[in-house]
Write a structure and sequence with these properties.
Length: 164
């Protein structure tokens, strides 16, 4: 049986995505930004995000086995979760377009920073540093770092499942 390929993604208007596996580590990562489109139309931003995620997956040349995304959370800056749910929808629709079965979509609790960087209050620079070390290359920004962190946590959990 081959090593499962994971797509880890954020649910934000400027979101990081990472593709990886246990044996290969981080295969590809990117940042997709539709924040400016939100002002005109959230529906248009959602469709654009979906299309760009599909393009990222296709360009990676990998068949995705599992899609993981961090659960939408309430940020102090905004009480509006609608953009997060719209971007989660874009990720789910992109997964469907890429042939990922519905039971291979997993929402991860928002404890990724704590599990990856050792602190739930890790700074953006600490996350970028930790993600760069994990990926073995320079990471562009905190959005890409968050996706790599989520990928790392998912891979760790898949290799060492917690007892329930």
């Amino acid at each position: 049986m081959r090593d499962p390929i994971i797509l880890a993604g954020d649910t934000a208007l400027r979101a990081g995505f990472a593709i990886g596996s246990q044996s290969a580590g981080v295969i590809a990562s990117t940042v997709i930004d539709v924040h400016k489109m939100r002002k005109r139309s959230l529906a248009r931003a959602t469709k654009t995000m979906q299309r760009r995620i599909v393009q990222f997956v296709v360009e990676s040349g990998r068949q995705i086995d599992l899609v993981a995304y961090e659960e939408p959370t309430m940020h102090a800056k905004s009480a509006n979760r609608l953009p997060q749910y719209a971007m989660a929808t874009a990720l789910i629709l992109a997964a469907d377009t890429c042939g990922v079965p519905g039971d291979a979509l997993r929402e991860w609790p928002s404890t990724v920073k704590k599990e990856f960087a050792g602190s739930g209050r890790a700074s953006k620079s600490k996350m970028i540093e930790a993600a760069s070390t994990y990926a073995g290359r320079r990471v562009k920004d905190d959005n890409e770092a968050d996706a790599i962190a989520l990928l790392a946590v998912v891979l760790q959990e898949l290799s060492n499942p917690k007892e329930k």
